[in-house]
Amino acid sequence: MSHTKSYEFLLNDISTLKGVGKKTKQLLRKKNIKTLFDILWHLPQAFTDRSNLVKANKLEIGKICTIKVQVLKHNIPRIRNLPNTVKCEDATGKLDIVFFNSREGYIKKILPINKWVIISGKVNFYNKKYQITNPDYIVPLDKEEFVKKVIPKYSLTEGITEKIYRNIIEQVLRKLPSIPEWHNQNILKYFNNKSWKESILHLHNHKNKNNLRSNFFKRLVYDEILSHFLVLSQLRIKIKKIKKIKKVFNNKLEKILTKNFNFFLTKNQIEIIKEINKDLSSHSKMFRLLQGDVGSGKTIVSLIAAANVAEAGYKVAFMAPTEILSNQHYLLAKKIFKGTNVGIELLTGKSLSVDKKKIISLLKKKNSIILFGTHALFQKKIEYNNLGLIVIDEQHKFGVKQRMELSNKGGDNCDILVMSATPIPRTLIMTIYGDMDVSKITEKPSYRKKIKTFSKPEFKLNEVINFIKTEINNNNQVFWVCPLIEESKILNYEAAVKKYDFLKNLFPKKVGLIHGSLQKEEKDDVLKKFLLNKIQILVSTTVIEVGIDFPNANVIVIENSNKFGLSQLHQLRGRVGRSNRQGTCILLYKKGLSENAKKRINILKSTNNGFEIAEEDMKLRGFGDMLGYKQSGIKDFKLADPVHHEDLFELVKQNIKQIENNIAIEQKYEPLLKLYDQADIINEINS
Length: 687
Ligand code: ADP
Ligand code: MG
Description:
- The protein is α/β, with parallel strands linked by helices.
- It is built from 25 helices and 22 strands.
- 38% of the residues lie in helices and 18% in strands.
- Bound molecules: adenosine-5'-diphosphate and magnesium ion.
- The site of adenosine-5'-diphosphate (ADP) has 19 residues, from α11.
């Protein structure tokens, strides 16, 4: 039986409030405010403090001030477009009150000569005089208390006035329900027993400066993190309960493979292979994320896992996001599985139907096959007899829901390995991947040289061109990246086209171009040419295919580098320096770098470590904007901030262990899960 609980009205649509018509509703939607609950998280950004009266000699330019003055003189010019001015003063100095677009009669009525008034508004300085233009308040002395207030200021959606907004939020706050406490005593003591309701009211109360470390704030942050963790931990528990037939293999193929590449595995790679092998040969289903910086050598690790699964007599589906990447994996596997009896096949959307038929019938047989491909691998028609492992490459964009589906894929006996090159700050791993086991490659192949990173102002383009000439003469290849122009999404590749034309003139027949609005085929074609070294310079917007190994490309030039975030720059830079030759990254910038942009460039110059960079990136701009998280399904923390609340993430991590064995999570945390929109997904997991 479902009956509505008192707090559930917070999930009502915002239009159930007084004063929210169609237009306001639409405007609020733009800010992602749909329910009454949503609006609670838009905290006052600041408070306008009109509570202190200042003297005329203490006015501060640019600030909102409240002042008691006497009216001296009206200055009403008879010329259109000139403002009306009222000269005022107090014992310490003079002040002009300036009115645009107001009638003379009105001005004389509210500001009669010789009268003392209270005026409040933003102070500016013009013609050597202090002014308040179109004041917010002008009241007689006996109304002083009406003005002298502290008013919360919300960051407003265009079109909604502060007054309307405050009216809306006040309606919600007035009706805020008391909800039965969902935390245990031992948790509550961390926040000095502040209740949910108390905390929300505190954060909206103008008397309180919103301190990120106050008990009120911390309590709400804890709630929020917990609601995320609960979902992941439920999913994790569910997956851990799955029993599978353990895979039996003697690492025979693994040994052959290792001989077939022309390098030795790093210690780190060996450890992770051991970890994976342990999972494969256990009775529980593997659900593991392999995280490693670009170029850290994840592919080999996953191919060895595939080899062991094949040796155990199973099939493997190896999925990559693009055709060209699948093809690259396929060709590599062909090479290193040579002389084994494992079938290596490729299936993409482009595969001919004869090939498709052949693959479909191969998959029905009992033999070991590793099938590479794109999403095509999971079409309905493709049925695997005995699928033992799914590998998914370059998937940092899976949300919880997709992972839940993924974990069911292939049936109970099928292990799952997901690979991602997006380094994630330590604090966030549990929040994003709490349902998975995580292996991290932290060590790069030792021969690899640190990519040299330079920054250059654009007017020194000549030096860059000269450098590139030399590189090309030495048989190296160059990426040239032009960022999207965000302001006009349609024109986003214009800069790239221009640069392409420019470089084509300097390097005839050596330059190719890709950008977002090319057809897939055209794009693949250019990429292939670059891969085969038929062209030497590839100009692109940011869409350089993720994951493709261009071992011959050693230089990357990034234009307008100040427009990119740190993690993004690092990802781009990771496209080069994958061989034993020296890689170079040149960051071009226009004059007048901001402090933040300077910091980003310096961090990049100082380290090549993606995990360090991810931490720095998060500190510089908060995690919401960082590469990849937008799609991860958790972008929308309302209050939690992994930089400032690292301890709380830790605390939840510790506590979740005790909580997760409590069978009655859905009951105990019902209000929390419902309000924070996690109830449905938990139900789905547990159904
Ligand atoms: P990513 O982790 O980005 O997927 P890849 O698996 O594509 O990286 O590896 C990048 C390059 O490093 C490849 O050319 C690969 O052959 C090479 N590589 C991988 N492991 C090693 C190693 N242990 N020693 C030397 N080179 C390696
Ligand atoms: Mg890769």
